[in-house]
Amino acid sequence: MLNPVHLRTLAMVLRTGSFAEAARRLGYTGSAVSQQIAILERQLKTALFERDAHSISATPAAEFIAARSHTAIGALQALEDNISLLMDGVVGRLRLGSFPTASERLVPAALSSFKASHPDIDVQLDEAEPQELMPQLESREIDLAVVYRYNLVPTAWPKTVRTDRVLREDLLVIRAGGGAEQPGEVDLSVLAGETWVSTREGTSGAAVLRHLCRAQGFEPSVSFRSNNYSVTQGLVRAGLGIALVPALGYAPGPGISAARIAGSTAFREILVASSPTAPRSVVDAFIGSFRRSANGFAPDALGVATIS
Question: What is the rounded CA–CA span in Å between residue 37 and residue 47?
Fold first, then answer.
């Protein structure tokens, strides 16, 4: 029988792309990770990684095995969690992942509300992007994840993961200048000659910007990139370019304004994703708290609407 510890190590090596980084995250030595992978290779009678002096590359067999083992690892982790909670006398635990903007704007109020009604639940929060959070959710490293998706970017998530839609955001063009100087809506085609500030290449935000601009017959000229919307707004406020941001990423302030895109149907939605093995009562309680936080935030925010 395959050792689940070795399968978990394999999954972490694939996620990090490095034996050394996998060892650091798992609390092992580099040689221990190498030994575990070597044992798996002998058991399976196939190579899991192609190695050279400076890097490793996963074989198709490694990717297949890691993908198929997610559910089993998650179930075993759930068993370990339940036994640990029983032995430690802890009433419950909630491990939450969230992307940075939600962590700043929505999660604090949600966690405050949740802790007020569930003082004996131990809450742990980690921050990452959705493409990192979903594998952690599937393998039960976390119980819940606050994630997002754009309607213009196809997103495939595991079928075993439940999602609850909470918020819908317009995409806003932000520019230097006061709100009184800018219209409530802007025709994207008139911005063809502008310099843009965008998220990093390979992100959903960058893909949406290209999609919308190409639909208007031009390619956006991007000179600055950052996944931090505070940095983006600082660059825009300094007159270095304009940007397209989801509504949650816009913080009104002096020297900057935002406008919706005229005639656009593009949007981003925020969801809470949950593991099928997470305690349902705890999951539902947090989702309720998160909805209350969203309901308190949305009325005063430009371009944000709650989803019932």
Answer: 9
Instruction: Name residues whose C-beta falls within 8 Å of residue 10's C-beta, 6 or more positions apart in sequence.
Output: 36, 37, 40, 48, 62, 65, 66, 69
**Cα separation of 64 and 48, whole Å?**
10
How does pLDDT run across 167-216, given as a tens digit for each residue?
A: 999 999 999 986 544 558 999 999 999 999 999 999 999 999 999 999 99
The domain of 102 spans 97-308
Domain check: are 173 and 42 in the same one? no
89 in any annotated domain: no
- 112 burial level (CB within 10 Å; 0-12, 13-18, 19+): exposed
Q: Which residues contact 255 (CB under 8 A, 6 or more apart)?
A: 176, 177, 178, 237
Alpha carbons 13 and 102: distance in angstroms, whole number:
28
Say how far apart CA 237 and CA 119 lie, in whole Å: 42
Please identify, among 83, 105, 138, the residue that sits at the C-terminal boundary of a domain: 83
Both structure tokens of 284:
């539902």
Provide the number of structural domains found in the chain.
2
This prediction has a pTM of 0.73
